Amino acid sequence: MRRPPKWTDGITFLLASNDPAPHSDRSQVIMLVRLSSDNKAATVVSIPPDSWVPVPGHGVAKMSSVSAFGGPSLMVHTVETLTGIRVDHFATTDLTGFRAMAQVVGGIDRVDPSVADPAERQQEALRALISTIVSSGVLSSPSRAHDFAGTVSRYVQFDDILTMSALQSLAFRLRELDPSAVTFVTAPISDGARAGQLWEALRQNQITRYLESTPQ
């Protein structure tokens, strides 16, 4: 399996949240998160779970069903094939895990009920969680970051490469992240040309230029 080249700056995560239905192994939320090398900015790209995408070895299928075919490794391979972007780490959680992380920082504001699009609701919830984590000061010291990382590790499953020590270090470094510098985008998978422009912008760290030149 040939993978996209590894970038020398920043980190790319693939985040997935499982469907809360009993015995379901489908992914309800799929997000590609690109963290800048200075940890001060990030781009979060939501990949709609109902998007039809080419799945290596399985033809074309909905993004939500990829994990059921081959677990996290196939999910990573599918996203890398789709985007041409190297995934450094994979993380998965569920609604219980999201609520636990929100609780440890004192809760988050409810998502505006007028937001009907599922991808936009997911983005708003994540935006609120990031903002609260930073503003709460939970990452302001190594000891508090260590405790927060411990909570995260109980409710979020990571790949084997991201060790507990590395997670704690990352949590502390994220104190530099400015919530206003986190850009949220929904991938236009059904529009091949626009999607290609998005992936190229993300590869070249030019997401702002993409947003300015592409109608949302």
Automatic annotation (TrEMBL):
- InterPro entries the UniProt entry points to: LytR/CpsA/Psr_CW_biosynth, LytR_CpsA_psr
Q: Where is the Cell envelope-related transcriptional attenuator domain?
A: 26-109
Quote the Gene3D superfamilies the UniProt record gives: LCP protein
Family note: Belongs to the LytR/CpsA/Psr (LCP) family.
Descriptive protein name: Cell envelope-related transcriptional attenuator domain-containing protein
List the source organism: Lentzea alba
Q: Cite the source lineage.
A: Bacteria, Bacillati, Actinomycetota, Actinomycetes, Pseudonocardiales
